[in-house]
Amino acid sequence: MERGGCVYIMTNIFNTVYYIGVTSDLYSRVIEHKHKRYPTSFTSKYNCIKLIYFMLYDDIEEAIEQEKRLKKWNRNWKIKLISDHNPDWLDLFSEDL
Questions:
Q1: Which domain covers residue 64, as residue numbers?
Q2: In what residue span(s) does the GIY-YIG domain sit (predicted)?
Q3: Predicted TM-score of the model (pTM)
Q4: What gap in Å lies between CA 30 and CA 18, rounded to an integer?
Q5: Could you give phi then psi for residue 2, rounded to 5 degrees?
Q6: What is the pLDDT of residues 11-42, one digit of tens each?
Q7: What is the Cα–Cα distance from 64 to 22, expressed in whole angstroms?
């Protein structure tokens, strides 16, 4: 059985630090970031608590490949990707979902 996946980008409240990740459960993963479940992680250290971009994939392997590609992009390309999908850089996550 194929498992879907999601590539996502988190940032801090100043939109200055970007974390690119991949998961099969976006809701649970973002909760972990927001509540700093892993205090020594990159997202905890740099206060990355805003979900500013995500893209769903039918296959987790496809999501992993996209994550690897995005991590190689320069900063301006990442900013354009985020701005094209989320022009106001709003937090796209709600615990009420």
A1: 5-85
A2: 3-80
A3: 0.93
A4: 14
A5: -75, 145
A6: 999 999 999 999 999 999 999 999 999 999 99
A7: 6
Q: Which residues pair with 8 in a beta bridge?
A: 21, 54
- Give every CB contact of residue 30 below 8 A, 6+ residues apart in sequence: 8, 10, 51, 93
Q: What is the mean pLDDT of the chain?
A: 95
- The per-residue b/e assignment along 29-63, b for 16 or more CB within 10 angstroms, e otherwise, is bbebbbeeeeeeeebbeebbbbbbbbbebeebebb
- Nearest by Cα to 65 from 5, 2, 3, 1: 5
CATH number at residue 20: 3.40.1440.10
- pLDDT tens track for 31-90: 999 999 999 999 999 999 999 999 999 999 999 999 999 999 999 999 999 999 999 999
When divided into structural domains, the chain yields a total of 1
